[in-house]
Amino acid sequence: MGDNGNPPTEVTLVLNLTVSDPGNQLPPVTLDTTTVSESLEVGGVVGTFRARPNASATYSLLKNSSGTFSLQSSHLVLNKELNYAEAPSHDIALAVTEFDPEAPDTEVEPGSPGETTDQVLTFTIFVQSASNCSSESEELCDPHAECSMSDDGAVHCACAPGFSGDGFVCEDVDECAAAEGGDEPACLNGGTCVDGISAFTCECAPEFSGER
User: HEC states along the chain?
Assistant: First the structure.
């Protein structure tokens, strides 16, 4: 701007700055993990609830999926055995009272220290199958086989006790036939052998009684 001899022009700039409360930008209470293996033993810790930095909190369960979980301080603890096939996930509701000593309590008196907030949070706990196999992978195995997956993603199938095969196809083992290969018959005195799973039973002839 050139000088034309007139008094210099005054320019006023108005800046509008919005200052947000950093406390409101912090995340609410969180659960450090929402996935649990169905092999976790009763009494084991599923996860831990964590309040905002510098804040303290108390918790109580409002919705507890038929008593599957309980609270020990800030820890979510397993109360009942998990079964992925019956319930692959569980919903819980948590009542939280949180106190932040560094936040101003505007409801009591502007600028006074400390703020208490009450909230209800919901979480979904996902159960991970102990077999580590997806439903698609489990379908590759015979219904009478157990599925497992190695670190490289390969699917392995193993026939359950009482069955034989490669895991992808399993056949019932004839325990009666196996027993007949011994020094004496499976059932004595003319009894009839009945094949079972990993075992056999004997039906005695009318004039006899007993296990074999």
Answer: CCCCCCCCCCCCCCCCCCCCCHHHHCCCCEECCCEEECCCCCCCEEEEEECCCCCEEEEEEEECHHHCEEEECCEEEECCCCCCCCCCEEEEEEEEEEEEEEEECCCCCCCCEEEEEEEEEEEEEEEECCCCCCHHHHCCCCCCEEEEECCCCCEEEEECCCEEECCCCEEECCHHHHHHCCCCCCCCCCCEEEECCCCEEEECCCCCCCCC
**Model pLDDT, residue 175:** 81
Q: Which domains does the chain have, with CATH numbers?
A: 22-128 (2.60.40.60), 135-172 (2.10.25.10), 174-212 (2.10.25)
Each residue's pLDDT tens digit, 163-206: 889 988 988 888 888 777 767 788 888 888 888 777 788 888 88
Whole-prediction pTM value?
A: 0.50
